[in-house]
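@channel sequence for tomorrow's demo:
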Amino acid sequence: MAISGWFVALLALGIVPIVYFDDPGMLLIWLGLVVAIGVIDLLAAGSPRALQLSRTVPDRVRLGESVDATLYVVNQGRRRMHGIVRDAWEPSAGATPTRARLSVPPGERRAVVTRLTPFRRGERRASQVTVRSFGPLHLVARQATFDVPGRVRVLPAFTSRRHLPSRLARLRELDGRTSVMIRGQGTEFDSLRDYVRGDDVRSIDWRATARRQEVVVRTWRPERDRQVVIIVDSGRTAAARIENETRLDTAFESSLLLAALASRAGDRVSLVVYDRRVRGRVLGASGAELLPRMVDTMAPIEPELIEMDWSAAPSLVRSITNQRSLVVLLTSITTPGSSRSLLTALPQLTRKHTVLVASVTDPTVVQATADRSTRDAVFRAAAAERALLDTARVSAAIRQLGADVVVGAPLDLPPAVADRYLALKAAGRL
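structure tokens (generated this afternoon):
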């Protein structure tokens, strides 16, 4: 049972006769009268237990987009149900409205539509629905709670896809679909053409030159069907929020853009999300199947507050491929202490593979180095300079071990990783 504001107002109205007649006994009379009216109103209310509830919810929605979840209320009782329905979605589901007024005649059905605009990735759930059925006077209500489970999977936003068209244009240039042709070691033979001043003499095909009696050079194109292995760190450092998103979300954005680009380039992409155990894995997907499987795998994964075990990374890569591959490690390299495990494991990876380490940097740290206006600002600037120095030291150590490094702000890291992939492709290192 629940009381409304009208019941409280009616009860407060009793102050008037009490003060007017100056008789304390009027208080008991008024209380009895109000309670009697409330009981009558309660008995006249339709029973919420006579309702049957069900819901339809879309399976998936992309982060930042909106969908409608519909709750169906069927009145199986003999009285009209006037009341309020509260659909208890998680706050991060962004449900509006949270309450809806409803009037359902006997034997009929009504629909309550809730607009969901989630602001966090993952599984957003609703478990219970509470119904208050008021009487004709709207003073007292019967209340019941129903278990009506529902969920919607919120996929990564993939906002970095806006960078894909420009990178695909550069990829087409590398692939020989325009007049630009790449020549160098580690690429696939494409065709022969006449020598032009400035061509690398190592590209001369001496047998073809002897046959044609004129100098002929080979043209090359980037190799296809290479293996790209992406390992995403889901340990404690991935939980840090930078510019209103976690490091893990930025890593997912970088992975999706790189996967879309590499798939168009004809390369095979594998994804592993790992800390001390595998949280998600995508293997053997290609073409139009790749990105849907990746976003579906990424959606429910949250950072774990444990240290990343980089010693298992070489065995993870070996379980995926034995060929020389591009291994992309998306992690944090902000401090030497947290990167010690990574630096220990890198030599085993760089011995056989091309390794790229990508890390998110905090723009506020860079901004703090420029502010020296107050004593507190000077201390902050000193701490920021030390943080940047630590990142630079770890980056230098990674390069000394034979790997490449890309760092950037959350919005800059995905295109930076894609650009480095294209540069490696152009250099014939894949």
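heads up for whoever presents: The longest strand covers residues 140-155.
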